[in-house]
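Q: Predict the bound structure with zinc ion.
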Amino acid sequence: MINNSSKEIKDRIRYGSINLEYHIKRSKRIKTSELIVDSDRIEVRTPLNKSLEDTRNIILDKADWILKKQKEYQETIPEIIVPTFEENSTVPYLGKNYRLKINKKQPINTIGFMDGEFVADITNSDVNENAKSQARELYEGWLRRIAYPILETKTKIYALKLGANAQNISIKSSSKSRWASLTKTDSINFNMHLMKAPQEVIDYIILHEVCHLKVKGHSHHYWDLVYRYMPDYQEKINWLNVNGKVLIGSDKITSEPQYQCQCDK
Ligand SMILES: [Zn+2]
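A: Predicted complex:
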């Protein structure tokens, strides 16, 4: 059903024997239509003046590609394992799953990463659930601490390459936030959970935001700029489409940098 009073609407279109349900987001800030495909969601972002027919044509033109991509995402097993924080389970860091060792009844709460494994020392571990939540807290605190210097250095490197100027970076840890976003004052917010992704995926997210310092929005001009510095950026987007939800440990996120392609009819 279409409700024209809302800027975000749901539409359904018949393609052969399939009913394609998709979301339309209209905004005056969007200059070029974009198609975003996740494993279980299709979204078209369009300028305010796009007609419903135009939007439907975008979906119909790309229907085969959309269905192929969704099948691919659904069939690909994520590389990242969602941590359970049980003893000898794994926790992700920079695209790999590392063993987590938990030492109970230690004098202080602390975590370290050495020789390819995380070792968490925890004080109060009488109840197993308590031990798990303490290990999670230590691990996430560690990720947040390690994130800042790594992301700051890499952001500076990309900013220098592009002749852009990022004012500041900050680390957020909300499971509902995006991988990264650019503020109105040219500061970049990064999602802490990004530190679970491989380095080259992190690089893509940084490049994505640094390119926005030069070009706002996702025009062809924008994607040309991304391509110039990372010709295989689509592979990183694909990785995020398969693993992104696992990194967050939630299916709520629809991250901005998951854009699959953009098209303007
Ligand atoms: Zn963007």
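A: The two ends are 23 Å apart (CA to CA).
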